[in-house]
Amino acid sequence: MDFNGRVADAFPIPLLVAQTRNSLLSSFSNHRKCKNQSCSRLYVSIEDKNSVEDIVIEEDTEETKLYKEEIRVLCKERNLPFEKIKNCRDLGATASSPIVAGRIFRTGRLGDATEADQKILLEGLGITTMVDLRSPTELRDDDALMADIFRGFTDLVWIENGRRRDGCLKELKPGVSPVEKSRKSRFKKGGDDDVVSAEEEMCDVGCDDPQTVPAGRSLTKSGDRKERHFVSLMNEFKYVRGTVTKVRKRDIAKAIIKAPGAFLSKRIWNSLKEPFITEINSGGLIMLNDLLLRFGAPGIKYVLDLCAESDRHPVAFYCTAGKDRTGIITAIILSVCGAKLEDIVEDYSLSANVYAEMNDHKAMVGALSQRNLDAKTFLGAPPEVMADTLLAMKENYGGVEGYCDWIGFGPERREKLRKALMEE
Which SUPFAM superfamilies does this chain map to (predicted)? Predict the structure, then answer.
C-alpha cells in the first residue's frame, strides 16, 4: 500500500457493519467482496471516486463465529505465552511485516508480570527500553506501577511542550513514582471542588525546569542502562477538549468554553459531562482514535523517535490493554515499514478479547471517566475501527506518511526507523 498520495488497487477493508463508515467512504466506489470467498469477513475495495451506495452488508452468524475462531487461533499463534501479561506480540510476527523478529513488541501493561513472565521479558526477549503510554490517572491507579519487573530500569517522564515541539525529559530518582505527588495531594484534599488531577500535577514541571533536558538529547541511550519512558499520549482533559470541537455549536460547549472551571472542578464537570459522554459513545473508538492522532501527536512523535534508535532495541511499548493507543503506534510503525494494510487491520483485531482476559472493565478507554460509557463500543477491537482509522488518516493527512510529516517525523526519521527495525 502506498499511503503517500494515492490509494492502491485492492485496498481491502474488513467490514462487519456500516456504522461510522459513510463519512469516510463517500468519495469512493466500486466496492466488492474479497476475492477470497473462504474468508469469514466481508471486504470492500476502494478504487475510483464516486459514492458508497453500492456497499452490500451481510451478516451471517456462522461467518461471525468462524471469524471469532480465526482470531482465537491467531492469538494463540502470535501472542507470547505469558502467565499474566496480556496481548503481547512481536511486530515482526505480523503477516507481511518486514520487521526483524525480536526487535520491537506491543503489549498490555507489564506490572502484573509473574516471575516466569519477568524471565521471558527481561532475559528471553532482553527488553532494554519500555515505553508506557498511559495517562497519569491510570498510573496513579496502578498498584503495580513500581513492581519488581521495573527494577534496574531508569525512569524518565516525557513532558509535552506544545505540538510540533519535541518536549523534554525528567529523570526520576530510583524508586520515585512519576505520580507520587498526585497520590499525596489527592489524599490531603479530598473535596470535589479541590480535586487536582494527576494529569495537572504530573505536568506541573515544565520544560524550563533545570532538572529537565530537551527530549532530542536523550534519544540515544546512555551506555547499557535500561530505561522506562512515561509518555502520556492522552488524558481526560485532551479528550474533553477534542470532544468540544465536535459539539462546539451546542449549548453545552458554549457553557464549558465560558467556564474554564469545568476542566478543574469535579462537581462542575460532572454536571456538564452528559453531552460529552453521548458524543463519545456515538463516535466510538474511531472518534477516539481521531482525537488521539490530533491531540497525542507530540507524544506519538517522541515514541517513534525512540523506536528509530537502534541502540534502544529490543523495545516494548504498552498502555493498559495494549489495544488502542498501542494499536495506533503499531499501525504507524507497521505501515512505515511496508506491511500490508489488511495485515495491520488483522493485527489490531487480535486485541478483541483482551479486556475479557484482564477482567478489568475499569481500565476501559484509559484516561477517560468510565461512567456511562458503552462497554460494547469500547471493550472490543472490531477490524473496521482500524480500517476506518487508516481511511481517516488518508482523508485528513494524505495517509500514514502524510501524518508522519504533519507531526514532524519526516522522511529521514522514517528511513532511520526502517533501518533500525528491518536491517539485520
Answer: (Phosphotyrosine protein) phosphatases II
Q: CB-based contacts of 131: which residues, under 8 Å, 6+ apart?
A: 228, 229, 231, 303, 306, 315, 316, 317, 318
Instruction: Give tens-digit pLDDT for 79-97.
Output: 999 999 999 999 999 999 9
Query: Does the global pTM surpass 0.85?
Result: no
How far apart CA 337 and CA 369 sit, in angstroms, is 35
Give the Cα separation of 314 and 413 in Å (integer).
18
Weakest-pLDDT range from 126-130, 155-159, 190-194 = 190-194
Return the SS3 of 104.
Answer: strand
d(CA 286, CA 244): 16
* Count helices and strands in the chain by DSSP H and E runs: 18, 10
DSSP classification of residue 154? E
pLDDT, residue 261, reads: 53
Q: Which residues have CB under 8 Å from 330's CB, separation 6+?
A: 91, 106, 344, 347, 348
Dump the DSSP string for 160-196: --STTS--EEEEPPTT--TTHHHHHHHHHH-SGGG--
Q: Which residues contact 25 (CB under 8 A, 6 or more apart)?
A: 31, 44, 46, 52, 55, 391
We find that the CATH architecture of domain 13-422 is Alpha-Beta Complex (3.90)
d(CA 59, CA 85): 34
d(CA 264, CA 82): 40
Task: Map grid coordinates 506491511 to a residue.
Answer: 339
C-alpha angle 266-271-277 in degrees, rounded to nearest 5: 95
DSSP state of 53: T
d(CA 76, CA 79): 6
How is residue 80 written as a grid cell?
507470547
Please name the amino acid found at residue 423. Answer: E
What is the structure's pLDDT at 152? 94
pLDDT digits (tens, 9 = 90+) for 109-126: 999 999 999 999 999 999
Burial of 181 (0-12, 13-18, 19+ CB in 10 A): middle
Length of the chain: 424
